[in-house]
Amino acid sequence: MSQLETAMAIMMKTFDKYAATEGKKDTLTKGEVKTLLEKELPGLLQAAKNPGEVDKLMKSLDFNGDSEVDFSEFVVLVAAMTCAAHDRCKK
């Protein structure tokens, strides 16, 4: 597999790993989002000093308002974080 295909496979595997812990297998609950962020994006939570930031992030990711994050919504988070990191690396 190419590097990009590998990255895509890792994204899918990571989502599935956390989505499978509670609730539906194809969505992330608020608790699953929090665990995923703590384990996979610890820098994001450390930068957010306000404990309500996870709630805010969850609401901003939940485009369809079902109080869960599906894979498409998760991809938006990863893409936004990748863009932010890319911009920082350029400077």
From TrEMBL:
Keyword Metal-binding attached: yes
UniProt xrefs under CDD domains: S-100
Assigned GO CC terms: cytoplasm; extracellular exosome
Domain of life of the source: Eukaryota
GO molecular function, a single term: calcium ion binding
GO biological process terms on file: endothelial cell migration
Coiled coil: none
EF-hand domain segment(s): 49-84
Annotated keywords: Calcium, Metal-binding, Repeat
Keyword Transferase: no
SMART domains tied to this protein: EFh, S_100
Alphabetized InterPro entries for the sequence: EF-hand-dom_pair, EF_hand_dom, S-100_dom, S100/CaBP7/8-like_CS, S100_Ca-bd_sub
PANTHER family in the record: PROTEIN S100-A1-RELATED, S100 CALCIUM-BINDING PROTEIN
Protein name: Protein S100-P-like
The species this protein was found in: Parambassis ranga
GN (gene name): LOC114450938
